[in-house]
Input
Amino acid sequence: MRDPHDGFVRLVQHEVSRRTLFKRAAAVAGGVALASGALSFVGSAFEAGVAHAQAAPFANDLDVLNYALTLENLEANLYNTIVGAGVIKNPTWVKYVTMFQGHENTHAQALTKAIADAGGKPVAPKAKYNYSAFDVSTEQKAMTVLAAVEEVGVGAYQGAAGFIKDKGILTTAVAIHGVEAEHTGSLHNLLGLAPTMDSRASAAGISTMVLSGAFTKPIPVADVLKAVGPILGS
Output
């Protein structure tokens, strides 16, 4: 049976091609090496989770994808941790959460391969994430944490979209953004919250109310990295 996520993987691998991305990265950053002095989310600053407020926080599209990959690695690990702990027991909730777990791991794997295929260096997942700020002691609280992190993912992709130069990469980002929004709405519905309101982003350290009715709101890159910095161990 064909993996239902194969289509997404093919989309990422097609759009993040050596022809489109590697040439852009080479022109902007001298090959795949990111220019020193510019903000680098591939180098040590990204891996340390350090947020630098700049008008243009990305040197090129590879930087944007590594920003996305850092968030996908975190989300995948969070789902893996919560599912592995068995804290969520409601059969319907388990069905959805395990489905979303698969999606997040697929996102991370596809972005990792695509960045490598484009000649870039994918940011590696952390060996350990610090979730001490999250209360997942009950299934209700664990679901609320997942809803908050998914909402941040929606706002993060929207906040970075304007920096993407390649239309193919933008298409891929929108594809992921849509799935993150579906996850958020579904988790809200399961929790008895309004799917497009009742923002829970503050539970993940974000002041922006991403869910605000007919239109979602973007989260600035610096705000996202400031919020996830402690989770990344910075």
